[in-house]
């Protein structure tokens, strides 16, 4: 179960936001008992890239075997 402040993994590219599947964000709000989540995506230096509301089908919880990967943001 995903809770507020949990990290999540994006499952679908959001090109309009400059996000790619696999990007990691933090849940800042939960809607309708987990039907959707408001998620903040940040750079590794702590700058907010975007905050988006996503249905539960577009995110998953971070798993024990996941590893972080850095990439440059395509849009500014």
Notes on the structure:
With 76 residues, this protein is mostly beta strands. The chain has one domain (7-61): SH3 type barrels, CATH 2.30.30.40. Helix content is 0%, strand content 39%. The chain is built from no helices and 5 strands. Strands 4-3-2-1-5 form a 5-stranded antiparallel beta sheet, with no helix packed on it. The protein is globular and about 35 Å long. The N and C termini lie far apart (33 Å).
Cα-atom radius of gyration? 12 Å
The CATH C-level class name: Mainly Beta
Secondary structure category = mainly beta
CATH topology group: SH3 type barrels
Helix count from the secondary structure assignment: 0
Please indicate the count of domains. Answer: 1
Query: What CATH architecture would you give?
Result: Roll
Instruction: Tell the overall outline.
Output: globular
**Mean of residue pLDDT values:** 95
Beta strand %? 35-45%
Element-by-element helix/strand order = EEEEE
Report the span from N to C terminus: 33 Å
Outline the low-pLDDT stretches. none
Strand order across the largest sheet: 4-3-2-1-5
Q: What's the count of strands?
A: 5
- Please identify which CATH superfamily we are dealing with: SH3 Domains
Helix content: under 10%
Largest sheet composition: 5 strands, antiparallel
Q: Secondary-structure blueprint of this entry?
A:
Layout: E1 7-10, E2 24-31, E3 36-42, E4 48-55, E5 59-61
Antiparallel strand pairs: 1-2, 1-5, 2-3, 3-4
Give a short synopsis of this structure.
The chain is an all-beta fold and 76 residues long. The chain has strands spanning 7-10, 24-31, 36-42, 48-55, 59-61. The model has no long low-confidence stretch (mean pLDDT 95).
């Amino acid at each position: 179960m995903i809770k507020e402040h949990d990290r999540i993994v994006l499952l679908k590219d959001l090109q309009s936001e400059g996000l790619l599947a696999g990007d990691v964000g933090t849940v800042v709000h939960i809607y309708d008992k987990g039907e959707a989540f408001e998620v903040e995506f940040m750079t590794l230096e702590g700058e907010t890239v975007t905050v988006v509301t996503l249905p539960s089908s577009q995110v998953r919880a971070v798993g024990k075997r996941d590893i972080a990967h850095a990439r440059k943001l395509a849009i500014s």
